[in-house]
User: What shape does this take?
Amino acid sequence: MKNPLFYAKILLFGEYGIIEDSQGLTLPYSFYKGTLKFSQLHSDFEKRSNQHLQKYSEYLAELDLPVDFRINLQKFKKDIENGLFFDSNIPQGYGVGSSGALVAAIFEKYSLKKYSPETISKDELKNLKYVFGLLESYFHGKSSGIDPLICYMNLPILIENKENVDRVSIPKGEEGKGAIFLIDSGSVGETGPMIQIFFEKMKTEGFRKTLKEEFIRYNNACIDAFLKEEMNPFFRNLKKLSVWAYEHFRPMIPENLFNAWKKGLDTNAYYLKLCGSGGGGYILGFTKDYNKAEKMLEGFNKEVIYRF
Assistant: This one.
């Protein structure tokens, strides 16, 4: 394949919790994708993207990457001069990994040593996550490296803790009544300010305690039940997670979704949770009966990402 496609990603579970060592579960989302291309740079989009890559190459020149993960900067810069740009339909500020796909695409094309997602070892995966964290930090401050890793591997990834990640098999989706879906909040979310709010909250002992004792417990239980296809405990813990977020992540929930969030909890027809850092972008929905949930969420743009 001349121009490999890099898909967006969705963090199903682990938002904010992975900062504090919770588990996370993330999967590629092929509806959105990006690829590196060459052009004469006629359109504004192409020009902006090319200029963006130029600035990014200057950032990369300052980075001291481990030997096995170095990038051929000379070739990258030459290609930028020859009209390289990142052609992508991944929306920015929606929590689906726009910068992650770009980083993955650059690494795949310009890394001196090549890695195969099929044969990569767990240790290499850990090192790759660290390197991707350095590469992505340019875009929104400190990065865990998870987003580019998912985009690069194009496989579901289980985040075991801060250090370790592993490939994982997601239960095969079936055409059932249940669904996991995205709701478009209609506004863009800025990751930086949301993370700032989170760290402010972490300064209070009560919040730290409830995050560790409740949020992380429900989050990890959801992942465990989902991977085992145990839907009753899955939805039981999901409701607890959704209630917790409604109470403690209020600033991160887009205002136009407050009532819909509460309605889901009151009726048990569906449960909502953050997708990424929140503040805008997408919100995740889970339901045992999508037709029913869809009617109740009339007026919102929705996209089904998984059926069961």
